[in-house]
UniProtKB/TrEMBL annotation, chains A, B, C:
PANTHER family listed in its UniProt record: 4-HYDROXY-4-METHYL-2-OXOGLUTARATE ALDOLASE 3-RELATED
CDD domains from the UniProt entry: RraA_family
Domain of life: Bacteria
Protein's UniProt name: Putative 4-hydroxy-4-methyl-2-oxoglutarate aldolase
Length: 212, 212, 212
């Protein structure tokens, strides 16, 4: 897996910025959220598809995904069993995996927070997984209504998670970087006493949903 | 806008205390919550009414609301786009606005938390706003089922948000202050080993929902 | 009330570990959660049954429950009034009560967090309780669909709350302790560079939901 152009950037590019510069819908539904405050992640998706509560595919993915990958686990939304927990988080972190996004449930939330390992999920439960299958790796998966291809770029922060298709990642990065610099500039000027109205034209462009 | 009697108090008066001393229902529904832990606000409402996802009215309100105001934004509950974010939060804070309550969605939650600017909303999304109208300012708005008039007093904390009508704000402050002092007194005595039962009569009065 | 075997342990045994070693369903539904991040509790249940919003039974329980007890309050799920708040939390803590689990609502969330008193509930509201009855103490109650007997063991952490029946508490503790030690061992070895696959057989046993 090549280095993510989004991850290579020295400037943090958030989900809101990527949403702004994207012409298509890239946002996962808001049910998938950081399981601890401040968690954020960016990298290329390593996809996993498993039945709800069946975590064996996650173990297989941890053994095979490259450093910097984001595991994107389609567990069908969750039912009532977890598919990821504290021990698995240590294993993933030690392998260099950069974060995990799960359409399903996790557990050991306190331990995962202490580890500072970024995990996004639909919720948590103490209830153990029940392995039945090997799962499927590196196939296209669904997180809510959003399709994620193996190798797509994934970014998550306090606002949720977005997916950038590989084909547009370079352009999205470039546009988002320009946007972030403009926002930093506006914020600096606001702190010097300028008003939002001084940026009316600039903000109108920013608010069009993409730079032009 | 005159100084809020509630804000002038040296003692913090919480939403629970104001709920206790109010004869009418003053609580916003529990869907509207602090977007970061510990956020709280108090001040007079500067009302804004906008279609979901249409944030231009918020920009206009920031330009015109006086210092100490609380923007109360009726965005119809939210749909799927935000109407407030990190740049707007900096602008509002620089103008001296004391906080924002939104029946709708925000974004840039991590940045707003770092800024320590108090924002209450129904949730968050990375998805950009779409300005279409100028919105309406200083009119009566609805947050959930609760009516908020321009100039009403607004208090928000970890329990949610309440609205105190201007006509009763002085009385509510006086009653709530007396209540807070009684509670402080009871807490101090509990820590010295007294029992809840020692305060049976006093607590019965407190629990009637208003001081008498 | 005797000392809890679970509480006596020097090692923290979490809800996930207890879930793993239990043959029956022991998990409260995920609507009942810690009201501040990091809250956790363990001890024997002192049960309270009250109508929604009617907190007088909680006062009575605080006066009579022994040190180390966990109040388990069946308030019918909550409706729109609280049954527990900041003053009651101070009283409970001073009496040596180890925590509170409520199928209902609380208030004074900020104060309870500052007090570091562990409370689990369905949510919060500023709205005052309305005492009407004395409630019923030390009877079997329901939290969601889970039955809790007076004297059962209760454990709560970031993943939710579980109940261990008195009859199986000794065995559950023993099994869970062995499980925790195995997990600690696996985590230590993962950090030394071993892979999850090195523990395949061991993890298979752990994942069966109980030690054998």
């Amino acid at each position: 897996m090549t280095q993510s152009p989004i991850v290579q950037s020295d400037t943090w590019i958030g989900t809101a910025d990527l949403s702004d510069v994207s012409e298509e819908d890239i946002e996962m539904d808001s049910g998938v959220q950081a399981v601890w405050e401040g968690a954020r992640l960016a990298g290329q998706a390593y996809t996993v598809r498993i039945p709800p509560g069946d975590h064996r595919g996650v173990f297989r993915a941890i053994a095979t995904a490259g450093p910097g990958s984001i595991l994107v686990v389609d567990a069908g939304g969750g039912a009532d069993r977890c598919v990821f927990g504290g021990v698995t988080a240590v294993a993933a972190k030690e392998r260099g995996i950069a974060g995990v996004v799960i359409d399903g449930l996790i557990r050991d939330r306190d331990a995962i927070r202490e580890l500072r390992f970024p995990v996004f999920a639909r919720g948590w439960t103490p209830r153990a997984p029940r392995p039945r299958t090997d799962g499927r790796l590196r196939e296209t998966v669904l997180v809510g209504q959003l399709q994620v291809n193996h190798g797509d770029y994934i970014v998550g922060d306090g606002d949720g998670v977005v997916r950038i298709r590989q084909e547009v990642a370079g352009t999205a990065l470039e546009l988002a970087l320009a946007l972030v610099h403009q926002e930093h500039d506006i914020v600096a000027r606001l702190k010097l006493g300028q008003q939002l109205s001084d940026f009316a034209e600039q903000l109108k462009r920013l608010n069009k949903g993409q730079l032009q």
